[in-house]
Design a protein that fits this description.
This protein folds into four domains: 4-30 and 537-632, Immunoglobulin-like, CATH 2.60.40; 34-133, no CATH class; 141-308, Collagenase (Catalytic Domain) (3-Layer(aba) Sandwich), CATH 3.40.390.10; 354-480, Jelly Rolls. Helix content is 11%, strand content 31%. The chain contains seven helices and 34 strands. The strands form nine sheets. It has a five-stranded antiparallel β-sheet, with no helix packed on it. It has a five-stranded mixed β-sheet with strand order 5-7-3-4-8. A five-stranded mixed β-sheet has the order 9-11-10-14-16, sandwiched between helices. Helix 4 packs across helix 6. It is globular.
């Protein structure tokens, strides 16, 4: 008698039997896999050439073959290597000019990757004049804290499975000294709880692994203008005054650090600055700070870009693209999500929510030096509606330290008690603006207390300053839905006043950063992006000779923990996993939704089909939520 087990995944083939008869104990099977490559592309105008750095190259446990897709089929995703808001200050030109990330998906069942005829190699050749690779580096003694082992510097905060079939999120820190090692792990743990457990990305946890890697810096904190710090990744703020963007100088050091986890375990690198104020950037690295007030807020927003490839929704930016943006009502891509109770009138019907802007201001103004004042006109055509004012304010921790006047009338304002950048808003539906000129004035008062304490950790003054001023008028309830739960077509304006459309009013953190939720359209895109990389089928385990009967074979399906297989506290209403078993192309109905089946001798050409049924995905034309795996028994 013999017993033969085999995992049809990345696991090692293991044979367990009393006597070895390999010729009769080798199940045949077919892996549908995908070759995945991620490249950093940089165009150099001085040489008119493009330089590429391969950041990742791995085999995914799922197929690109949907329908009659060719075995030479190529899919590409391209997006900026650095995402920033033009209002955030002086960007360094080399950060943005011609710098992009390119992801390439090709079927793995083709020519060897080393050969020039491989579709990935051909695709890379279209873009890259030169190609380099991020080296696989291991911890060296000089890169560790004194007496610290590799395990002391790496902590796996969330472990949901092998990196070969999970999305790996990797936190690194900059500006943490060896003495601040406990602070680093405490900061990262807090940010993970606030970002991945408390709300925003909690539903995606079964697909994720989350890591923290500590690399000590010589100096504590990050660089500001006029004050340089010696840190591992050289994070720096390019502008003084109010906290805004933070950039990475030592990118290769960050890449090498992340790759210490292995070639498949650095999907989304994050760098957290040891700094108590607002700031960050998106792109190849999601950058935020350890701020108690804004660290998680910025991180959620930047990860929204990275996870879902969605664009901005706030007003006054430069680039609006992705599934959450439409240049016209005719091009709205979220018709499957339109709310039947909204002014759009239900699925497929699109109508613009009636709203206009009166002020799109980004003064970055120090209120201690001068006030901010705007004069604008209203056409008086929004009776039954109202107006909204939204401002970002820094350095105003004292009550009453800033005054807001609209046509000479004081607007009520309560400080949040922090110097960090904060978002404040006013909505008025009882007194719509009258026809004519109106004036909004924002000024500092004498109620601010002079800071006579010890220097701040970053040794830089945070002034009372206004970052942005946005003022809108909107229509009556039949013309404009204020509810954040309604999905429709809401206008958005870029820096030049050109209009596009977004799905919700303020119900998405891609527009309202103080919100902790993404809209349904952005969530759907994250699911589709993640399920391009992660297979619902973990493994198929075949046990030949079950119960001493050489004519029967037990087959066990291991699937990912979604739907009814989620932890009880993570379950989503209406989400379930469906399982179908097909023999010689026909479904065995009696085996529906079973994870363990018994096959008899002569039954060899099998396929298992697993589908994620979820209310989070309404538009899936490529059947990304449907995963298949063939296997053979002989």
């Amino acid at each position: 008698m013999q017993i033969c087990t085999k995992k049809l995944g990345v696991s090692t083939f293991v044979l367990l039997f009393f006597h070895i008869f390999t010729s009769n104990c080798t199940p045949n099977y077919n892996h549908d896999q995908t070759h995945y490559t991620k490249i950093h592309y940089q165009f150099d105008p001085s040489t008119n050439s493009s330089n590429c750095l391969v950041l990742a190259e791995e085999i995914l446990k799922k197929s690109l073959h949907i329908g009659n897709v060719s075995r030479w089929h190529v899919e590409k995703v391209s997006y900026p290597a650095v995402r920033g808001n033009s209002i955030d200050g002086d960007f360094e030109s080399d950060e943005f000019l011609g710098s992009r990330l390119l992801e390439i998906f090709t079927p793995h069942e083709s020519t060897a990757i080393e050969e020039e005829s491989h579709p990935t190699r051909k695709e890379v050749g279209k873009y890259c004049d030169s190609v380099n690779y991020v080296a696989h580096q291991k911890y060296e003694a000089s890169s560790r804290g004194k007496g610290k082992s590799l395990e002391d510097n790496i902590l796996k905060l969330v472990d949901n499975g092998p990196s070969s079939n999970r999305i790996d999120v990797v936190f690194m820190g900059d500006g943490y000294t060896e003495k601040e090692r406990p602070k680093f792990f405490a900061d990262i743990t807090r940010l993970v709880v606030e970002t991945f457990y408390a709300s925003t990305f909690s539903e995606f946890l079964p697909l994720l692994n989350i890591w923290a890697i500590f690399t000590p810096s010589t100096d504590s904190g990050i660089s500001y203008p006029g004050r340089q710090k010696n840190t591992t990744f050289s994070l720096h703020r390019p502008t003084s005054g109010a906290p805004r963007g933070i950039y990475v100088r030592k990118k290769n050091a960050a890449r090498a650090t992340c790759r210490r986890l292995g070639p498949s375990a650095c999907d989304y690198p994050i760098i957290i600055a040891n700094d108590e104020y607002y700031g960050g950037i998106g792109g190849e690295f999601a950058v935020s700070t350890s701020s108690l007030t804004s660290g998680a807020m910025v991180l959620r927003h930047e990860l929204g870009h990275n996870f879902a490839r969605v664009g901005e929704e706030y007003d006054g930016g430069e680039v609006y693209n992705g599934v959450n943006s439409a240049s016209s009502l005719q091009s709205v891509g979220w018709r499957a999500w339109l709310d039947k109770n909204s002014s759009s009138g239900g699925r497929g019907r699109v109508r613009e929510e009636r709203m206009v802007y009166r002020i799109l201001g980004f003064p970055q103004n120090d209120l201690d030096k001068r006030e901010v004042s705007y004069t604008f006109r209203s056409n008086g055509a929004f009776s039954g509606g109202g107006w909204i004012l939204i401002v970002t304010l820094s350095g105003a921790e004292e009550p009453g330290s800033v005054q807001f006047l609209l046509d000479g009338e004081t607007l009520p304002w309560t400080s949040r008690g922090t110097k960090d950048k904060s978002i404040y808003s006013w909505t008025n539906t009882t007194h719509p603006l009258s026809l004519g000129r109106h004036t909004l004035t924002i000024s500092a008062t004498d109620k601010a207390i002079k800071d006579t304490s010890l220097p701040l950790p970053h040794e830089t003054r945070i002034p009372r300053s206004i970052g942005s001023v946005l003022f809108y008028e909107f229509g009556n309830p039949n013309e404009f839905q204020q509810s954040d739960d309604v999905i429709s077509a809401y206008p958005t304006w870029n820096a030049q006043g050109r209009k596009s459309f977004r799905p919700t009013n303020n119900g998405c953190l891609m527009r309202n950063m103080s919100h902790d939720q993404l809209c349904s359209i952005c969530k759907e895109e994250i699911w589709l992006q993640f399920l391009r990389r992660v297979s619902l089928i973990e493994d198929i385990i075949i046990l030949i000779g079950e119960g001493g009967n050489s004519t029967t074979t037990k087959v066990t399906l291991e699937i990912i923990g979604l739907g009814q297989f989620r932890r009880e506290d993570q379950r989503i209403e209406g989400e379930r996993m469906e399982v179908r078993w097909e023999l010689d192309g026909k479904e065995r109905l009696e085996l529906r939704d079973q994870l363990d089946i018994v096959a008899t001798q002569g039954q060899r050409d099998w396929q298992v089909v697993v589908k994620l049924v979820t209310p989070r995905v309404r538009h899936d034309p490529r059947a990304i939520t449907l995963h298949k795996r063939k296997f053979f028994i002989q």
